[in-house]
Amino acid sequence: MGRRQKRRQREDSAELVAKRQRSGHSQQTKTQGQQEVSQSFTTPDGQVLPAELKKYWRSRHNFFWRFDEGIQIDEEGWYSVTPEVIAEDTAVRIAQLYNDRCKKADYGRICVIDAFCGVGGNTIKLAEWCEHVIAIEIDPQRLEMARNNAEVYGVAERIEFILGDFYQLAPTLKADVVFMSPPWGGPEYTGASVFDLESMPSHSAQEWVDCARSICANIAFFMPRNCDPLQLAALAPDSPCDIELNYTSGFFKAITAYYGDLALYGSSDPRRLL
User: pTM for the full model?
Assistant: First the structure.
């Protein structure tokens, strides 16, 4: 074989290797692109959300039935917002207790604190059924989302929005009822057989209940479904306690522990909400 032929063969081999490398890189880039696409999805209105939120987005009208009218919600809000039927059940229970006392048929003439209002799911329902709601949120953007969402539902005038830390604000607050749905620590809590009341972010369940009881005796404490009811009752051993199991569409979603006079109203039977 002549020199020209050998050189040509080497050039052809080098070109073949380069093509293979380019092809491999292209395939790798394509695979990476597919992985990136699979890690997110785009809603009909053009919003790009993480793939793990898709099941929550599909249930958006269960969280806010007026979702399509301008509801705002961030990533953490999707994980933490209460299904609307459960939020309303809690608000009705609070309002009806005081309706019985003050003979009001429309809504309870009381002041309720929503200690962790988030994007406003519970706040809105409390405002629909109670005279005045103090909505507290530590994140300024989320507080503005709650304000916007309350305006969508037409109840913003009954709500006092406060930016701050409930634990620090508690000594300055007065109310008839405190509703609490503190951060549970993300969706990982579902992996535990029993939710650890001492491992909650920022403060333990005992500290949250003690903080709320410094304001009033009537507390609604919304907690994960894998809590131990006896442990929840032990958070206020000198108070009546009613443990309500919250179901929606046949699924066990959460537990609401009621303390004080709230525990004496309603039933200890599980609430199965449609």
Answer: 0.80
